Amino acid sequence: MRQLARPHRLAPGARVAVVAPSGPVPEERLQAGLDVLRGWDLDPVVAPHVLDRHTAFDYLAGTDADRAADLQHAWCDPSVDAVICARGGYGVQRMADLLDWEAMRAAGPKVFVGFSDITALHEAFARRLGLATLHGPMAAGIDFLKNARAQEHLKATLFAPESVRTITSGGRALVPGRARGVTLGGCLCLLAAELGTPYARPSAASGLLCLEDVGEETYRLDRYLTQLLRSGWLDGIRGVLLGSWQDCDSYDRVRTLLLDRLGGLGVPMAEEFGFGHCEGALTIPFGVAAELDAEAGTLTLDEPALR
Prior knowledge:
By secondary structure, the chain is α/β, with parallel strands linked by helices.
């Protein structure tokens, strides 16, 4: 797996588009997130359909066509320096086929931020655009709005990425050791759901795999991990970073499952790495070469996440 193209860092005054590729966005949370971005001296612009709600399926932020159009227009607008998702939820997989990937590739690289359901777009941007992306807090996310650490780590990554080349989790080694590879991953259930689609990487080989999830029963986590193992997608990975498992079973039970399913890979694994659906979530760049030190709980990037 090769390192992907890194977009340029942001500067004060940069124009940032906020889009909603997945679930509906509460207006008060959106406005609060816009205030945070303005406080960073950014110029946020809201895509036309961000506050829409699908008439038949209220778990979607508007129609598939409108959500896709918002993302594509934002990406292809030369005045936009970054695209930040408003929230996750569900819906990316319904609209991915409606995007004009050739036009988006021609528009060139820019910063892209999101997590949860946005995992499907991280995979698509990697495979279709060859672009490094940021697995990080979203503009209308509750944990982002209420947590200074999440805000400051994302801000540092966007404006001064050299200051966060070493990401320290404070977690522990589930399997000790060091490993080098290219970062990838996201929400476990989305990675499993993407298998077999034209947007998923054919393999995570040579990668440092970042995994997290939210609200899943242990047997479902087992199913996702087993599917990734049986498909061969995990063959050849170099290391694993485990994030949050918010609203899943007790962490002791989840840890036992993670060891049972992933321990046989024989690679270093760091747990409680502080990214995902948790308070103070760290921003993790995907598509960059890095070294994992599981015992120290650190991920050290070869180069800053953004140029």
